[in-house]
Amino acid sequence: MKTTPHIDPQAPIAPTILLPGDPLRAQFIAETYLDDAQQFNSVRNMLGFTGTYQGTPVSVMGSGMGIPSISLYAWELIHVFGCTKLIRIGTCGAMQEGINLYDVVIAQAACSNSAFMDQYDLPGTYAPIGSYRLIEAVRERAKAAGVTTHVGNILSSDTFYNAIPDFNERWQKMGIMAVEMESAGLYATAAHAGVEALGMFTVSDSLVTGEATTAAERQTAFTQMMELALPLAQI
Ligand code: HPA
């Protein structure tokens, strides 16, 4: 089997892959939701697993934090290992009133302060968007399950701590729903390769109210989101 600097597969990788930031979360998902899970990667402890969900092969692997990390894994998964549906599952900070802790935010589009798009040398500004097909499928499932979702524009920030005092306010003014740190890179990498990607997140904290969740509470909300994300392997 082919190897890359970051992935040395000890088992096959499925066309659909879920990408949580934390590799231990990937292990938890494999152990909790997948049948016959086999570990395929351990390079840099970025654990990856492949199993089946209701009979359909699906992989799950940590992405690390930030656009450079998720994008290099996505690039290798797409170009070397043939992944065609990449789904980031993570947490985000809410930036608008009415987006509450534990709601699920779906990134229809992802703005960024990253220079990642410069590599495409486009004569303008690229707008990274999620797969409409995947967005629609998640929304339908969420409605049926009674899970509150918000679909719209998010910010994939290169900075968790930013020196600009009104950094958040300026993005909030543009209607940005939430902030995380990866999806714009994932979306652009997928678009450039002609494959599908989606970013969906549980709200772990609110930049509007200052509320935050505990690790234990995040686990419950995360479970709810997994039940929306895993069936995407079947469409
Ligand atoms: N900022 C960036 N990424 C995040 C946040 C945040 O406040 N919360 C969860 N992911």
Structure commentary:
The chain has a single domain, classed as Nucleoside phosphorylase domain (Rossmann fold, 3-Layer(aba) Sandwich). The protein is of the alpha/beta class and 235 residues long. It has six helices and nine strands; from the N terminus they run βαβββαββαβαβαβα. 30% of the residues lie in helices and 28% in strands. The structure holds hypoxanthine. The site of hypoxanthine has 10 residues, from strand 5, strand 8 and strand 9.
Using only C-alpha atoms, the radius of gyration works out to 17 Å
Strand order of the largest sheet: 5-8-7-6-9
* Amino- and carboxy-terminal Cα gap: 27 Å
The major pleated sheet works out as: 5 strands, mixed, barrel
List low-confidence stretches: none
Kindly state the percentage of residues in helix: 25-40%
Tell me, what's the shape?
globular
Q: What is the CATH fold-level name?
A: Rossmann fold
Enumerate how many helices there are, as a single number: 6
Using the coordinates above, name the CATH class. Answer: Alpha Beta
Q: Give the averaged pLDDT, no decimals.
A: 97
Bound molecules: hypoxanthine
